[in-house]
Design brief:
Elements lengths: L3 H8 L9 H47 L1
């Protein structure tokens, strides 16, 4: 899945390997928590979506069973 932090890394015109080791470490230390947070929020959204779908299925299962 394409997320906003991927677009940030694609906008950088110079590859990270062209920077000094210190600069690379600074960039990585900034991006790692951001990517982790984005990943966690994506996981949370997926879980909520699954719960919502399950609730809808359970609701309509009761309705269809009542009709039969």
């Amino acid at each position: 899945m394409y997320t906003w932090y991927m677009s940030i890394s694609k906008r950088v015109s110079t590859p990270l390997s062209n920077y000094s080791a210190d600069a690379q470490q600074i960039v990585r230390s900034f991006l790692e928590p951001v990517q982790s947070l984005a990943s966690k929020s994506e996981t949370r959204r997926k879980q909520l979506r699954k719960q919502n779908v399950q609730a809808v299925h359970e609701h309509f299962e009761a309705v269809f069973n009542a009709l039969v």
